[in-house]
Amino acid sequence: MTSTTPSSAPMPSSGTVPSSGTSGSVPSSATASVAPVTTAPVPETTAAAITAAGLTKSYGDKTVLDGIDLRISEGTVFALLGPNGAGKTTTVQILSTLRTADAGRARVAGHDVRDAADAVRAAIGVTGQFSAVDNLLTARENLLLMADLHHLDRREGRRRTAELLRRFELTEAAGKPVATFSGGMRRKLDLAMTLVGNPRIIFLDEPTTGLDPRSRRTMWDIIRGLVADEGVTIFLTTQYLEEADQLADRIAVLDGGKIVAEGTAEELKRRIPGGHIRLRFADAHGLEAAAALFDPSSSSSSASSASASSHSGSGSGSGSVGRDAEALTLDLPSDGSVPALRSVLDALDDAAIEAERLTVHMPDLDDVFLALTGPAADGRRDANSPKEQAR
Predict the structure, then answer these.
(1) Taking the C-alpha atoms of 231, 233, 234 and 235 in order, what is their torsion angle to the nearest 10 degrees?
(2) Cα–Cα distance, 339 to 335 (Å, whole number)
(3) Please, which residues have CB within 8 angstroms of residue 165's CB and are 6 or more apart in sequence?
(4) How distant, in Å, are the alpha carbons of 15, 208, 354 from that of 283?
(5) What backbone torsions phi and psi does residue 328 show, to the nearest 5 degrees?
(6) What is the pLDDT of residues 256-309, one digit of tens each?
(7) Best CA proximity match to 206, nearest among 238, 229, 230
């Protein structure tokens, strides 16, 4: 069952803890060139809830974790992203004392996960990928069972159960068998069971998998409330990139057993080229005039090119101007900043060119994920390695 682990509970061999902005897509070429990955340092303005150094784990000849380092501040949401098999669940299992790392050290809530596992378990809660509620019991009975496993006295157990049922809006369904619950209700009960022991750190391993959009957003609100109201630290693994974007204070991307990037959502997005301003025109004449203005290679007039360059140079992104004659659109590389947008509008005004529509397109976490993970990303990292650059 996924829950806060009482310090006296035995550890199982399985992976569960016992119950004691902008719109539009980025062209595919936008991810073709990615700057060498560097991990942004975590500001050490608050105490660390979780730290890890050099964590390594292999199963047979397969290396799952290859020396990962982490520092997660108290009272924040940290999201670990990665493709299937990247090692996300293994990381959670090591940090929650369910598995032992082959090498490296980790501390959770100030305790070493290897030397003080009971103290770690007393401070954490774990909600796994699949709900671990007892279908034969009611919601109230599931929570009371957790209270017993945490050695709460009967009065406190009933009080805590009633509080959690009310908080998760399960009071009306408290007496119904869990087998009758929807997926969203089961996940809410699963998280409520994790909170019976008042954990300071909660590991959520893909907590909204299989939920509909409304239930997913309800879970997001609950997670935000835990952090904002109670100062709980959340370690989140997810494959829903919007979820990480919405919730996480910091995000790490795990691929091939290594942390390939870490930072805030905005920091990660800025690493990926492909941001652009898209101009749409009413006719081909307007498109051609704008293309000549902003793209020197398409214009014989050095004066107009120089004028456009002076306007669009500030805040422009990397890449070339893209033109779609059929759609009557022109894509100008841009970082999406206000000065960059203003410079484009000024250039159009100076040249007396009228655009029918203007939209700003910036890379999102989908683009980050695709650029930093998988075989193509492996090739780019190899090309940026010191060994490869020395050739």
Answers:
(1) 170
(2) 10
(3) 139, 140, 143, 171, 174, 192
(4) 61, 46, 10
(5) 60, 45
(6) 999 999 999 989 988 887 788 999 999 999 999 999 999 866 544 444 444 444
(7) 238
Q: Is the dihedral of CA 89, 78, 12, 192 positive or negative?
A: negative
User: 122 φ, ψ to 5°?
Assistant: -70, -20
Tokens in use for 250?
Answer: 């910091």
Tell me the pLDDT tens digit for each residue of 146-190.
999 999 999 999 999 999 999 999 999 999 999 999 988 998 999
User: What tokens were used for 354?
Assistant: 């009228």
Q: Which residues contact 340 (CB under 8 A, 6 or more apart)?
A: 277, 312, 314, 315, 316, 334
Angle between helices 183-194 and 213-230 (to 10 degrees): 20
The token pair that represents 50 in the structure block: 């979780």
Return d(Cα 368, Cα 34) in angstroms, integer: 9
Task: Give every CB contact of residue 193 below 8 A, 6+ residues apart in sequence.
Answer: 1, 2, 3, 19, 133, 142, 143, 146
Residue-level pLDDT at 376: 53
CA distance 52 to 37: 20
**pLDDT tens-digit map of 329-350:** 999 988 778 998 999 999 999 9
Q: What distance in Å separates the CA atoms of residue 278 and residue 214, rounded to the nearest whole number?
A: 32
Distance separating alpha carbons of residues 243 and 224, to the nearest angstrom = 12
Q: In whole angstroms, what is the distance from residue 57 CA to residue 84 CA? A: 16
Average of pLDDT values for 212-225? 89
Return the half-sphere exposure (C-beta side, CA atoms, 13 A cut-off) of residue 354: 3
What tens digit of pLDDT does each residue of 340-377 get? 899 999 999 999 999 999 999 888 888 888 888 866 55
For the stretch 214-217, contacts whose Cβ atoms lie closer than 8 Å and that sit 24 or more positions apart, written own/partner, are 214/184, 215/182, 215/183, 215/184, 215/187, 216/240, 216/243
